[in-house]
Design brief:
Radius of gyration: 13 Å
Low-confidence stretches: none
Helix content: under 10%
Number of helices: 0
Largest sheet: 7 strands, mixed
Mean pLDDT: 94
Shape: globular
Structural class: mainly beta
Distance between the termini: 40 Å
Order of helices and strands: EEEEEEEEEEE
């Protein structure tokens, strides 16, 4: 059974850093694109980044502060978040779809989702 589990969220002060992890099981990571999304209260789910073997990495938003990477041996995708701002506060989700990242970060085209991890940026 394909499963995605996020971890690494928490409370951090503005300007701080966090690294989120998305552990995948039940499928070969090489055959899937993994995207990171986030959703703040009262807002739509927003695409952050995506990575796949076919496309490399793509940044949809928050360019320059967040970096996506993957470790196929560990079946894990990471989101390194630096210089965090209060507006980065959201639940962060990872999601999987076959093969390629999409040009547009449309949540509906991703087939599998994790449960999310809360990131709160506050002093």
């Amino acid at each position: 059974q394909l499963q995605l589990v996020e971890s690494g969220g928490g409370l951090v002060q503005p300007g701080g850093s966090l690294r989120l992890s998305c552990a995948a099981s039940g499928f070969a990571l090489d055959n899937y694109a993994i995207g990171w999304f986030r959703q703040a209260p009262g807002k739509e789910r927003e695409g952050v980044s995506c990575i796949s073997s076919r496309d490399g990495s793509m940044d949809y938003s928050v360019k320059g502060r967040f970096t996506i990477s993957r470790d196929n041996a560990k079946s894990t995708v990471y989101l390194q978040m630096n210089s965090l701002k209060p507006e980065d506060t959201a639940v962060y989700y990872c999601a999987a779809r076959h093969y390629s990242c999409s040009d547009l970060p449309i949540p509906g085209i991703y087939d599998y989702w994790g449960q999310g991890t809360q990131v709160t940026v506050s002093s």
